[in-house]
Amino acid sequence: MKIITDEHKIDDLLSRSVVEVLPLKDNLKASLMSGKQLRVYIGADPTGQALHLGHATNFIVLEKYRQLGHKAIILVGDFTARIGDPTDKTAARVQLTREQVIENAKSWLKQLAPIIDITNKENPVEIVYNHDWLAKMNFEDVIDLASNFTVQQMLERDMFEKRIAENKPIYVHEFFYPLMQGYDSVHLDVDIEICGNDQKFNALTGRTLLKRYKNKEKFVFITTLLENPITKEKMMSKSLGTGVFLNATPADMFGKIMMQPDENIVQLFTDCTHFELDEIAKIKNQLEVGEGNPRDIKVKLGHEIVRMYHGEKEANEAVEYFVNTFTKKEIPTEMPDFKPTDYNVVAVLIEAGLVPSKGEARRVLEQGGIKIDGEVVSDASYTVPVGVVLQKGKIHFLRIV
Whole-angstrom Cα distance, residue 104 to residue 109? Predict the structure, then answer.
């Protein structure tokens, strides 16, 4: 495939959704302008079945590299996921079976299909599994790999320092995670790794190993984290109920975008859509000077994101559904039927997947977030009658059967 060296496209790639390029952004630009095909990869451990918009940012960037003619590689960490990266964790992660990881990976690839042309005939994405080489290493190989780093270097990771301060255990196997991720770069002989800032330590480990084993430079392309510019909280948080997941229905995806605070709009346009940067600059200016209605701009944002993952027709229907249920405060005529095994309201909310836990169910009830046929229910012992419409928040409706 022809390598595209259009400077405008390369400048856009290097200025959007990027926090830092190591060792130097100018050096990476020179490599991209050279006409040589580069090997670019993202490594991902499928520890769960659902991806959110924060994950998608990296794959949108990877697709831009692929469209320029470079070799895009998605590395499924079917070996590393079983160990678990301790990043941002104050305790060791639960280890998964390989079968669980493979099933999660299948779900991920389906969710990513709308934003990265995995099966493109001219320049297909290469999908690899690190079990294929890490599982074959013997103890001598592992010792040789570990000899490139000191314990002090490993302890520089913030989460380990925090655990030491809190007198929590650090397991020896957790030190091997960055070594394994680093060796992925060596085995794949990559030129660029795309990752979030939480993976910077691991990516730099790979850069060190690639230099020592192959005397080769690797660029680390660190992407932006989706976070509220005022509160600094992560936009995509399952615990906060703010995650916009790629396997969500069109209506749910659109509704979650509309629930985002106004200050998040510009970054979501920048990191999660294909809108041109000059058009996003106009939107930013409209918001700053008060010319644009934030709600109308969020409708445009929500429509675009749903269109990307579900299609134009579904995006139009999601807007209509939201207008009817939220703006006009109507109960939709079409909604899923749900037959619970237990009709206690807390049990129904959990079984329907509307809340993750009993504690969250009680919190939503206490805050008036649950309605039965339009009437607020706050009693956690309430028994939901058959035939009613249960509503959670502004956009979730179920007919109880």
Answer: 9
**pTM, two decimal places:** 0.80
For the chain, domains (ranges, CATH) are 7-223 (3.40.50.620), 250-327 (1.10.240.10), 337-400 (3.10.290.10)
Environment class of 223 (CB within 10 Å of its CB; exposed 0-12, middle 13-18, buried 19+): buried
Q: What tens-digit pLDDT sequence spans the chain (401 residues)?
A: 799 999 999 999 999 999 999 999 999 999 999 999 999 999 988 878 888 999 999 999 999 999 999 999 999 998 888 765 555 444 445 667 888 888 999 999 999 999 999 999 999 999 999 999 999 999 999 999 999 998 888 888 777 888 888 888 888 888 888 899 999 999 999 999 999 988 898 999 999 999 999 999 999 999 999 999 998 888 886 555 568 999 889 988 998 898 888 999 999 999 999 999 999 999 999 998 888 789 899 999 999 999 999 999 999 999 998 887 776 666 676 778 899 999 999 999 999 888 888 988 999 999 999 998 888 999 999 999 988 889 988 778 888 98
* 294-310 vs 250-258: helix crossing angle, rounded to 10: 150
